[in-house]
Amino acid sequence: AFWDGGARTRASLLNFVVYCRSTDQFDANTALISRFVRSHACRAILVGETHPPTDPATTPKMSAWVQAHCHINKAGAQEVCSEQITLLSEGVSEKGIANALLANLDYDLPLNLWWQGSFPVEATSPIWARVDRLLFDSLHWENSTHEPQSLARIRTNANACMEIADLNWTRT
User: Fold this and answer.
1) CA nearest 22: which of 58, 40, 46?
2) What pLDDT shows up at residue 2?
3) How far apart are CA 125 and CA 121, in angstroms?
4) Which of 51, 43, 44 shows the shortest CA–CA distance to 18?
5) Interacting residues of 155 by C-beta distance below 8 A, sequence separation 6+
């Protein structure tokens, strides 16, 4: 959102989702999103999973919170604020996570998804059909045989126009 003399204008160019398969990187990803929104107007969503509860009687749950990243522009006059929605899944199914994520997207904007960690073995989530650009980093793949196969399954269920970008290749 842009603030101008008390008036507020909301502007976004894309949905930017960072999906981490654990919560270890929450702080680092929040700092990354804060830097990213300085120059890219977007709806930013951080999704993290905790491992399924060890007690089967524990009810899966989804937590969510919103925070603002505010920056003064280069001229020092206007404050530019962007929101970050954080979704924390505790034992929720892949489809449940997708439903929470899809409910928080700006539907008229493209979805850029940065997937951190291993891809799911089964690519059945409805989120794949909505992704316009999938970012990942093959440098951190634990199994270089399994991951390309999972990526191929994702491409099968994906938006026909989905672009993929391996951050590892940009290092060359």
Assistant:
1) 46
2) 46
3) 11
4) 44
5) 162, 164
Task: Enter the pTM of the model.
Answer: 0.85
Within 8 A by CB and 6+ apart from 12, the residues are: 41, 42, 43, 106, 109
CA dihedral 137, 142, 145, 150 (to 10 degrees): -60
pLDDT tens for residues 70-79? 877 666 666 6
Which pLDDT belongs to residue 133?
96
Direct distance between the N- and C-terminal alpha carbons of the chain, in angstroms, rounded to an integer: 36
pLDDT at 142: 83
Q: Can you tell me the mean pLDDT for 91-119? A: 92
User: Strands, DSSP E only, in the chain?
Assistant: 2-4, 7-9, 14-20, 42-50, 61-72, 79-90, 111-116, 133-136, 163-166
Quick one: tokens of 140?
Answer: 């951190």
Token pair of 130, please? 């909505």
Which of 144, 97, 116 shows the shortest CA–CA distance to 22?
116
Give the ranges where the chain is alpha helix by DSSP (H).
Answer: 26-36, 94-103, 146-157, 167-170
**Residue for token digits 């009687």?**
57
